[in-house]
Design goal:
Largest sheet: 9 strands, antiparallel
Number of domains: 2
Low-confidence stretches: 1-5, 22-44
Number of strands: 18
Helix content: 25-40%
CATH class of the largest domain: Mainly Beta
Shape: elongated
Number of helices: 11
Distance between the termini: 29 Å
């Protein structure tokens, strides 16, 4: 029997757990304020800095060692204007910076500024022998920092110089404080796998052939990487030593020409947008992690961007995409509904056979098979339409979790489609509709005894369990699930109601 106490208890437990998670999570509203605080901490460091910006990126270069110590990305603010998102930093919590260095150049003194403009910096330094290293910083495009290292030796010599190009990083989270399914991983492309995605703590010191010409650090919506479009490199991965910093990057042998050598380094600092990533380096677009349903996810992004261009809302784009897929899969739903109608019609005969052969399970099975064969009914036909929806749901989950387009985008009462619903409205709706869907389903042939009790308990337990799972899902995928379930329940209820009326009439 349906027990309201069980439902009440599970619902209360569900809400309590949700509130605990909400109270213990970091306040997303203060993310910008924390970013500002970190930016202010920059100037408390024992370094001298110079800043350059192209309106999209803002980077701070240390005059102490010529490293890129801070990097901010400007993004559209929900309050209007622009906000800074910290992607690289060197403060008391997060240490994440990039440095090029020439092994043969002993830089004993800080750099001096030779030329400075809004988007260009030239600095130089001489070692004790008078050899000069000149570094320039500029922008190759909106999201690419171009660094040049030019060495001028006092004496003519032949051979080459080695330029190290490394990120240095501790294991502290950086950007996505308190976000749903946050990720902070080392990423690179190699001959073994075109895309490798590992936690910092999971690798040991090794050299990897960089088939994709890049290595970097991948976060939920952003990626920072050093890359070379033309040349494949040997990537060097170094676990923490005394300084507690991971090091990952590669080195380049730069040929000497008349006692001078020039090396170029490109560093990508930007969002996980497919159209941006695929133009950086080979296989770089895989930083937009769409799981094992990558192809479906790519298609969804293309369609969602097209729908967004029409409606101007990512939430509405998700709703429209759900409706389109429901129309495409409508023949399968028709099969499912017809199966449910036939199951309802066969219930009296099924119950009669169960009662007649309740003590003979072999005979019961044979009679049931004969009935199904006579009526041309497949009891599993109603499950087949669910199979295509599994990869669709998984693709929607990965897209709404990873794609930069959904970051900070609001819809109705939901402030961020990439985050969970803070008011728990959509997860609760999903649980209620799942309960209604179960109530609409005809009872299975095994509708008595212990099996019937288990089935009844599952009807009570499964919707709250589903609600609990969806509480932690990105709101975008929950909206998809709610609309999809609604478009399934409504025609089912109408057709089954008409079928019941026809039987009684």
């Amino acid at each position: 029997m349906f027990n309201p106490r069980i439902v009440f208890g599970l619902t209360a437990l569900l809400l309590l757990l949700a509130l605990i998670v909400d109270w213990t999570s970091l306040d997303k509203k203060n993310k910008f304020e924390r970013s500002v605080q970190v930016q202010d901490q920059l100037f408390s460091q024992p370094y001298q800095f110079e800043k350059i910006s192209n309106g999209v990126l803002e980077v701070y270069i240390s005059l102490d060692d010529g490293s890129v110590r801070q990097a901010f990305l400007f993004e559209k603010s929900k309050r209007g204007g622009l906000e800074k998102v910290r992607l690289m930093s060197d403060d008391q919590f997060l240490r994440f910076y990039f440095k090029t260095s020439v092994k043969e150049h002993k830089n004993a003194y800080p750099y001096t500024v030779d030329e400075l403009s809004e988007n260009y910096l030239k600095i130089s330094s001489k070692d004790a022998s008078g050899n000069e290293l000149v570094k320039t910083f500029s922008f190759d495009d909106d999201h690419t920092l171009l660094i040049t290292d030019e060495v001028a030796l006092m004496t003519s010599t032949a051979g080459s110089l080695t330029v190290d190009k490394y990120f240095y990083r501790n294991n502290y989270k950086s950007v996505d404080y308190g976000t749903t399914f946050s990720r902070d991983h080392l990423a690179y492309s190699s001959t073994d796998d075109v895309f490798n995605d590992d936690q910092l703590s999971s690798f040991s010191e090794k050299d990897v052939y960089a088939y994709g010409h890049w290595v970097g650090y991948s976060q939920k919506h952003f990626v920072v990487a050093v890359f070379d479009k033309e040349k494949e490199r040997n990537i060097h991965l170094v676990p923490p030593k005394k300084d507690g910093l991971y090091a990952f990057g590669f080195f380049e042998d730069s040929s000497l020409n008349n006692s001078s050598s020039l090396s170029e380094t490109r560093v990508f600092i930007g969002p996980k947008q497919k159209d941006i990533l695929e133009n950086v380096a080979p296989y770089f677009e895989y930083n937009l992690d769409l799981g094992f349903v990558y192809g479906i996810g790519e298609f969804f992004i293309v369609v969602l961007n097209y729908l967004y261009s029409w409606v101007g809302s990512w939430g509405l784009a998700i709703v429209l995409l759900t409706v389109l897929f429901k129309l495409v899969l409508s023949p399968l739903q028709i099969i499912q509904i017809r199966s449910m109608v036939k199951m309802r019609r066969l219930q009296p005969q099924i119950q009669e056979i169960q009662e007649r052969y309740k003590n003979d399970r072999n005979k019961l099975g044979m009679e049931m098979m004969q009935l199904y064969s006579k009526e041309k009914f497949n009891p599993f036909a109603g499950c087949f339409p669910l199979l295509p929806q599994i990869p669709i749901f998984l693709a929607m989950f990965w897209v709404t979790r990873e794609a930069f387009e959904f970051r900070g985008e609001s819809f109705l009462w939901i402030p961020d489609l990439a985050e969970s619903d803070p008011y728990l409205i959509t997860p609760v709706l999903m649980g209620l509709m799942m309960f209604l869907s179960q109530k609409l389903m005809p009872k299975p042939p095994q509708s008595k005894g212990m099996q019937a009790q288990i089935a009844q308990q599952m009807m009570v337990v499964f919707p709250p369990m589903l609600t609990l799972i969806f509480i932690f899902m990105p709101a975008g995928v929950v909206i998809y699930s709610v609309i999809n379930m609604l478009l399934s329940i409504v025609p089912q209820a109408i057709i089954l109601s008409r079928a019941a009326a026809a039987e009684n009439g």
